[in-house]
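Let's do one together. I've listed all components of the complex below, 230 residues spread over two lines.
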Amino acid sequence: DVKVTQSSRYLVKRTGEKVFLECVQDMDHENMFWYRQDPGLGLRLIYFSYDVKMKEKGDIPEGYSVSREKKERFSLILESASTNQTSMYLCASRSVREGLKITDTQYFGPGTRLTVL
Amino acid sequence: KQEVTQIPAALSVPEGENLVLNCSFTDSAIYNLQWFRQDPGKGLTSLLLIQSSQREQTSGRLNASLDKSSGRSTLYIAASQPGDSATYLCAVRPTDSWGKLQFGAGTQVVVTP
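Okay, and this is what the predicted structure of the assembly comes out as:
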């Protein structure tokens, strides 16, 4: 089974702090994603990475940066946390092949609920 | 820009009734459409993936249909159970994306015993 883990389930930070959210997948997937989820807005893509050291902006990258130094790990960084970044953050990794079968499935971590005071 | 809409936002049904969840999208240029389930405070679990060339996919009590030309997908859950209570999200992968998905806001389902 694919496993995607996130470093914290709940996090409380103060305005202006630098925040690191980590995501690890154990299936050697090349593509990884960071989303935030807010009530009524669904999931919105912040950044994604299609391979090590490769990153692309998603729909809402402002105020965030990412790092992908190793294939299994994708980190989301809030350079200076603000109250409007209070949200649920979800990481996903994408499978394009499962055995001999071509697929296109994203596997999600359990999420990190971040509160910025 | 692709927009994905799920109506209604919430639904409550008695146990045993069939569930019908709707998803619509504005641009028919998609690679595939995926349905996910999310339990409260948890991540998403993929339920079904329909390729753009397919009309439907089935898994147990779940059946998802896709009408790409009209921009609609429907998820049917037969004989609902209280354990089906969750939020269901649909997501499309546009053809010009790099594996990126565009999500709807979800339908919150409650199945009452």
